[in-house]
Amino acid sequence: MNADQRNPAPIEAAETTEATEHVEPAEPAASVGAFDSVLTIDTTTPHSARMWNFWLGGKDNYPIDRALGAQLQESFPQIVDIARASRRFQARAVRHLAGEVGIRQFLDLGTGLPTADATHEVAQQAAPQARIVYVDNDPIVLAHARALLSGRPEGATAYVPADLTDTETVLREAARTLDPSRPVALMLLSTLGHVTDDARAAALLRTYLDAFPAGSHLVLCDTIETPLTRAASDEYADGGALPYVSRPADVLRSFADGLDLLEPGFGSISLWRPDEPVTTKPVDQWGFVAVKR
Ligand SMILES: C[S@@+](CC[C@H](N)C(=O)[O-])C[C@H]1O[C@@H](n2cnc3c(N)ncnc32)[C@H](O)[C@@H]1O
Q: Is residue 176 pLDDT above 60, yes or no?
């Protein structure tokens, strides 16, 4: 079952049932077009953004997320290190791109709930004029989108509540904020595993990268397949969450085909240009930053 089938509508109409929670969304300026003034948060199914928030030590999650999150943490304790390493890798990659490389536009697909060192904060610290578009299809991310939009006046931040597999909508709406004739950093951090079919994931990346010129970058990380991560993926899906697949390292690496890898290349993200000497074990979350020539 793919992401479209599991979560067909970016924002559901408000319905009053005991299993849902109504949340006021961020200002419409955050989004693209009209949406309901009340969002429905499904608290009967564990959600990726909320479980990720649980592993990161956040409070924006529900008992259903905490139950599966704790169960997974028990059988695969590395998940907590993976979530933290993913956020740190993201911050280092954005700092490098906005600082040394001079990228001024970022398209962050599968944003997740706001945390410290969000893409706009890191990018605009290096370059206040940086422009950032966030995309996620979880209503809870939309409900918190205001925190993603507190960027610097010299730059711009926008939030598009959309399914990232709907490339037409995402690219059209992103173009309200980003100039598609100039390089963009396309970011998918711990998110492409939700597009479970390899060919579909590769085609999706191609569509996005084709929309932007040479000098654009891809920042990607996901879980590599080992017996432990495969079991964790199965347990995650069996628990009712939107499936997230781990991939053999060579498949993950192939998502950079046709691009040039920046140093140090493809590997465990905790070893990608670490700020400090690495004292922890490399995590099974691998990734790269690559440039389109
Ligand atoms: C594991 S979280 C990672 C969040 C963030 N990138 C990070 O690294 O902290 C995956 C995110 O992808 C989002 N996501 C999953 N499938 C999606 C889809 N088809 N369209 C848009 N967002 C999606 C989820 O809602 C969730 O916020």
A: yes
The amino acid that residue 155 corresponds to is G
Report the atom number in ligand 1 closest to the C-alpha of 86.
Answer: 8
Ligand 1 within 6 A of CB of 194? yes
C-alpha 169/C-alpha 192 separation (Å) is 18
Nearest C-alpha to atom 8 of ligand 1 is from which residue?
189
Under CATH, domain 78-291 is a member of which superfamily? Vaccinia Virus protein VP39 (3.40.50.150)
CA of 19 to the centre of ligand 1 (A): 22
pTM of the model: 0.90
Model confidence at 149, pLDDT cuts 50, 70, 90, reads confident
CB 70 within 8 A of CB 208: no
Enumerate the domain spans of the chain: 78-291
Quick: pLDDT tens for 191-208.
999 999 999 999 999 999
CA distance 72 to 129: 40
Q: Indicate the top mutation candidate among 117, 194, 208 to test ligand 1's pocket, ranked by most ligand atoms within 8 A of CB.
A: 194
* Cα 194 to ligand 1 centre (Å): 8
